[in-house]
Amino acid sequence: MTAILSIPIFGFLSILQSAIISRLPLNRGTADLVLIVLVALALQKSISYTWQWSIVGGMFIDFFSGLPFGVFTASYLIATAIALFLRDRIWRYSFLMQLLVVFIGTIISHGLTMVILIFQGGSLGLTSVLQVITLPSIVLNFMLSLPVYIIVQDIIEQVVPQE
C-alpha cells in the first residue's frame, strides 16, 4: 500500500466520522475514528509510511472541522509520533499501547482545540470541558479501539503478508 491509497481510505473515514459517528455523542463527546485508525496503523510493524497517512487523515478532518486548518493535523502527527516511539521501544502489548496512545491523542486533540477556542475569545471552564466533552470522548474512543485495531491488523496482514 502506498500513500496514495490513504486518500480514498481517509476520505471515507472522515465522511463516516462527520456524518454518522458525530451524530452518536456520549454527553457532548464524540469518537475520533480517524485518530483510532491512525494509531492502529502506526502500531503495525509492517507499515513504514504512517507520517503521510497522518497528514492525509488530519487534512481531511481539518476540511470538515470548523477550527483553523492544521489543528487536527498537528494533533494526529503528535499521536503518530508517540505511537511510533512506543512501537520501536515496546514490541509486545500492542493493544494496550493502542489504548494509551488513543488516550494521549484525545487529550492532545482536545487540549489544542481548547487553546484555539480560548485564543478566539471563547470562555471555557476546564473542569466542565473535561467532564462533558473530553472524558466521554475518551470512553467512546476506547470502545471503538478494540474492533478498529483488530480490523486494521487483519487488513494489514492480508495486504502485507509476514514472512
Please, could you describe this protein's structure?
The protein is 72% helix and 0% strand. The protein has one domain. Helix 2 crosses helix 5. The protein is mostly helical and 163 residues long. The longest helix is centred in the last third of the chain and has 34 residues. It contains six helices and no strands.
End-to-end Cα distance:
17 Å
Number of domains: 1
- The string of secondary-structure elements, in order, is HHHHHH
Q: Structural class per helix/strand content?
A: mainly alpha
- Total number of strands: 0
Low-confidence stretches: none
> How is the biggest beta sheet arranged?
none
What's the alpha carbon Rg, rounded to whole Å? 15 Å
Number of contiguous helices = 6
Assembly level? single chain
Strand content: under 5%
Proportion of helical residues: over 70%
Overall, the morphology is globular
> What is the overall pLDDT average?
90
Topology:
Blueprint: H1 6-19, H2 33-42, H3 50-64, H4 71-89, H5 94-119, H6 126-159
List keywords for this structure.
single chain, 163 residues, mainly alpha
Short synopsis of the structure:
The protein is mainly alpha-helical and 163 residues long. It has six helices and no strands.
